[in-house]
Amino acid sequence: MGYSTTAESPRPTVNATPTLPLERSRRRMVREQIEARGIRDPRVLAAMAAVPRHLFVDEGLAARSYHDCALPIGAGQTISQPFMVARMSELLQLKGNERVLEIGTGCGYQTAILAMLCQRVYSVERIRSLHDRARNTLRQCRLLNRITLLCGDGLMGWEKYAPFDAIVVTAGGMASPAWMEQLNPGGVLLMPEGEHGSHQLVKRVKTPLGVEETRLDFCSFVPLLSGVQDL
Ligand code: SAH
What we know:
Number of helices: 6
Order of helices and strands: HHEEHEHEHEEHEEE
Bound molecules: S-adenosyl-L-homocysteine
CATH class: Alpha Beta
């Protein structure tokens, strides 16, 4: 499957070791879990087909990495279900020239998908072991040249690189005021909002007249927490 390129920003290619059964599983995942449930953006479909999701989980879980579910990634955290990654990526309506802030790198899988869709991804993770492992996996995928990672508290956003065109939060909780402040005019904040594991995807667009809010899918994410954990 092909995807479009722009002159300014060549699309990255991912260096996946040829593991054929897993590639077949990945194509099936895109067809049966992503396309069949209404994801249409060809760039999102191409990114989901290209990024080797099995490299982002422990080897023992690789065979399940294309299943229709979230999986543990250590430190009590999870890699999100493939459909949710695709859904959130499509809702951002990325064209290729955006700078995107992700809160919650986790294993780096969503980071990798975003890196295929925009100009640069800035991603913050509060748990050091996950941050370190995500860096290695993203390097292995040859995507680190379009990603900047930080081990820190994403509730503060990332002032140094603000403003962003989009901010995507991959842990559930309440919005931090810093995020809206760090968006460009027209920028989008997408997050699972709510308390105690019961969340709803909320999309907020920063307009000159105020914030436009759309409430979307009900979902359940790991919690958004404050502070850095040196695990
Ligand atoms: N996108 C990730 C999802 C990981 S789960 C993936 O595909 O793997 C959400 C992650 O958010 C967890 O790793 C958790 O540690 C992290 N997180 C929670 N609160 C955070 C905060 N305040 N700042 C940064 N990361 C946070």
